What does this fold into?
Amino acid sequence: MRIRGIRGASLLGAACVLALVSGCAQMGGLGTANGGASDADAGAQAQSECNPALGGAIGALAGSMFGKGKGHLAGAAIGAGIGVFACMAYNYRSRQVRDAQVVEAQYRRDRGALPADNTIGAYRSELLPGETVKSGSKAAMQSRVTLIRGTRAAAPQLKEQLTLFSPEGKQLTTVTKDATAIDGTGEYETNFDFNLPKGIQEGRYTMRSALYMDGQQVRSNEVPMLVVG
It folds into this structure.
């Protein structure tokens, strides 16, 4: 009975700690679709951002609760990594770079007539300032989306998702934002700005950007990201 009581308390404690980590992952820093936050907004964001060191410590505690003996150490290490990446904050913004008239004229030249349904003409992504990023530094996944509004279609509901994978291929963090500025024919530039946690494992990570239209994934891109110390 005593052993069961201890295990039950450990699981309850772990659940509470994981809830804290989850809360950490959901705090602040996700920005707005149109960007251009005011000083007051920036201050509020800074206050609400998750503390990576605290997230790592909470994650390590949670991980250690699930192990036995030496497994406590392995669990703590895994949990610490989860906690740190749970604290990553993203700022999302988008803007139009080519208007409807230019994009539609090019589409007519290439295809002869405009489509009846909403169509993604192109979707490409790149990592800025480059594919080599230092831990603790800022970076951005920038994408270009070309949308042609269908002649018989309502305005589409677009979302963009960014997912980070570890060098081993495990999903570390993901975030989805409404692309509200993409509301009609045109070419748009979108940016997921983020700050990598300091001291994370070096190696070749993968950033995946995916575009969803009316709830369905329509395009995706994968970009390698080499993290150095």
User: Anything to note?
Assistant: The beta strands are 90-98, 119-128, 132-134, 138-148, 158-165, 171-178, 186-195, 203-213, 216-228. DSSP finds five helices and nine strands in the chain. Confidence is low (pLDDT under 50) at residues 2-49, 52-80.
